[in-house]
Amino acid sequence: KDLYDSALTIMMRLVFLFSADERGLLLLGDPLYDQHYAVSTLAAQLRETADKHGEEVLEFRTDAWCRLLTTFRAVFGGIGSL
User: Fold this and answer.
1) pLDDT single digits (tens) 46-77
2) What span, in angstroms and rounded, lies between the C-alpha atoms of 43 and 67?
3) 42 vs 3, 18, 35, CA distance in Å?
4) Is the confidence at residue 15, as pLDDT, over 70?
5) pTM (2 decimals)?
C-alpha cells in the first residue's frame, strides 16, 4: 500500500508539472529552468541519451530522480532566485 501511494503521488505530481509546462504556467523557455527544473526538457534529455547510448544506460542514472525531487521542492516551497 505504501509503495502504491508513493507511486501515485509521484505520477500526480508529474501530471501536474507536464500540464503546467504545456500551459505556460511555469518558466519554460528560461535557460536555467529548462536545464535544471523542467520535466518536459528532462524527458527530452533522457530520450536523447537513450537514443545515443541505448536504453540500458538509463538504468544506471540517478540524476533524473534528483532533478525531479528538486522540482517538486521548488514548486512546493518556491525559489527566490529564479
Assistant:
1) 999 999 999 999 898 889 999 999 999 999 98
2) 11
3) 24, 11, 8
4) yes
5) 0.78
Distances, alpha carbon 20 to alpha carbons 16, 37, 69, in Å: 6, 12, 17
Q: Exposed, middle or buried: residue 16 (CB in 10 Å: 0-12, 13-18, 19+)?
A: middle
HEC profile of 4-49: HHHHHHHHHHHHHHHHHHHCCCCCCCCHHHHHHCCHHHHHHHHHHH
pLDDT score of 78: 84
Report residue 56 as a C-alpha cell. Answer: 540500458
